[in-house]
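hey m, so remember when u said the tokens were messed up on ur end? i reran from scratch. heres the input so u can diff it against urs
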Amino acid sequence: MNNIRIKEIFSSIQGEGPYIGFKQIFVRFCNCNLKCNYCDTEFSADEYFEEFSPQELVDYINKFDLSTVHSLSLTGGEPLLAVDFLKEFLPITGKLKIYLETNATLADKLLEVIDFIDIIAADIKLESASGIRDSYKFHDKFFEIAKQKECFAKIVFNKNITHSEIIKCTDLASKYGIPLILQPEMTDNKLSVTNDFAQKTLDDFLKYHKDTRLIPQMHKFLDIR
């Protein structure tokens, strides 16, 4: 049986993307295969964590009032690193909708569990913001698989975003027919760019991909998890 280290489990509202305001149960997995410059999420297993078997995690989740919950958010870190655990866990979660938050680089692992996923909230990593180079080849393979489910892509950007990055992102989104959600990078829970710059960036994306929206990380404005 596969056991997994979980950083935290909590109930809150979704603060990003088109599902902002929906109540979810969040399961934060430890560890990630990337190290983005802007990441401020505590997912390391170096300090506090709890270990669960698949059934133990289901039992824990069932302690919440699921009648008020839209979906179960698998977040991290990177949940797909725990794909062997997920293959045992997801089939026994019952009727709860599964919302996967992922960095969209592990296509082969997504393929192993996609039948159990309902919504995919995927990142597109800009080198100008994340420091991650050449991510598009991984994203391309990922979205080829993810397009069979409801999927959208989140893009964290700052003042260093380039025209080339905009073209690469909109080409990917148009190729796979996915909405783009632009998220200005946050610094101390404030936008790292001006309102004018954020709106101009949205306009630049809209020239190439009409299904693009500018949605900041609302949970940070509300000061909730």
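this time it looks ok to me. The chain has one domain: 4-222. if urs says something different then somethings off w ur setup not the seq
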